[in-house]
Amino acid sequence: MIAEKTYLIPTSVDEALKMAKANLGSFKYLAGGTDVMVNRFQGNEESPCLIDITKINTLKGISKDGKFLRIGSLEILEELKYKKEIAEEFPMLIEAALAVGAPLLRKTATLGGNILCENRCLFYNQSEWWREAIGFCLKCEGDICIATKGKKACFSELVSDTAPALIALDAEIEIVDVNGIKQIPIETIYTGDGVHPRNLSETAILTAILLPLNRGFKTDFHKLRERESLEFTSLTSAIAIDKNGKLKIALSGVDPKAVVVEGTVNDDKALLIKKAIKGARAIDNDMYSRKYRREMIRVFLNRSFKKLNL
Fold first, then answer.
1. Which of 133, 194, 238, 302 is deepest in the core (most CB within 10 A)?
2. How many Å is the Cα radius of gyration of the chain?
């Protein structure tokens, strides 16, 4: 029998998976807590069982693993700036990590947690009494999207800042669950469905982030937010070009999933921007308007193309 409220602290991935299997349908993994605990305070997350994975040492550390730089999912965002292995080839990841929240939050928040942070919406991320007063939405067992008045789709937004940077850098993630281990591109875990934004199994643990070495990346990163030291993103753009001329753009904050555009340095830049804007299904569920955020995609990408001499 599962206790009404349970707090479990495994010391290995296998132990964590056993705990998860024993509490199916009623648990949540906890790492830095900067996303999960806030959502619990607002009544948006009510799992009676928390499985705290912070004591699993195999989820920490940075090393070179074959063709990849392997970063443990529990690495703290604020501490990434001290990691010379990252600074040498992937400085954009550090820039993205330091764009997350405020300094105090970054001292607790983990890289894996930011990749998996819950989608956000101006009408969902409010107190429980506020949501009850205005009416429950699709993301909290209501029957309508408050922002669009539609009944079929939730457009709560992916707000990770590190995800677009990692996606632009062709990063992959290592996932372990009760069925085994797999390595997949980061962008493939996002569904585009605001209610169920990730297609990972319930027991899945993100164990590591893998960045491809020796690609000679040139990069640029931008973030739109009302207050630079605090806010979740209204638009994050990341672009990376490798030594062979491959170009990859990734956006967050303007769609339930990452918006990804791939090409080469020889492609028409106006067409690349057009594809990025078309892929962004932003709606008016943010402090900035849909129109403004979509226009800022053009602004940010043009700035990046200019900086990268494209």
1. 238
2. 19
Q: Which of 90, 95, 53, 94 is nearest to 74 (CA)?
A: 53
**290-307 and 269-279 are packed helices; what angle lies between their axes, rounded to 10 degrees?**
150
**CATH code of the domain made up of 60-120+156-307:** 3.30.465.10
Q: How far apart are CA 81 and CA 84, in angstroms?
A: 8
179-220 residue pLDDT tens = 999 999 999 999 999 999 999 999 999 999 999 999 999 999
Cα separation of the two ends of the chain = 61
Q: Is 75 helix (H, G, I), strand (E, B) or coil?
A: coil
Model-level pTM greater than 0.90? yes
Instruction: Tokens for 37, please give them.
Output: 């605990």
Residues contacting residue 201 through CB under 8 Å, at least 6 positions apart = 177, 178, 179
Q: Please say whether the structural domain 1-56 has been given the CATH code 3.30.43.10.
A: yes
Show me where the domains of the chain are located.
1-56, 60-120+156-307
pLDDT in tens, 106-127: 999 999 999 999 999 999 999 8
Q: Is the dihedral of CA 265, 267, 273, 276 positive or negative?
A: negative
